[in-house]
Design goal:
- By secondary structure, this protein is of the alpha+beta class.
- It has 2 helices and 2 strands.
């Protein structure tokens, strides 16, 4: 049986995948929501 051990960070030369933290909200808004062109296909 699988046992959940929490979110682990994954790093490569070009990408870092990690659990979101509250301080990410401003960057997310700026990069994803603020630009209409970037959100055109998100429903």
């Amino acid at each position: 049986m699988l046992e959940h051990k929490g979110t682990r960070e994954l790093r490569t030369k070009r990408l870092i995948l990690r659990k979101f933290v509250i301080s990410d909200v401003a960057s997310m808004y700026k990069n994803l929501v603020y630009s209409i062109l970037k959100t055109e296909f998100i429903n």
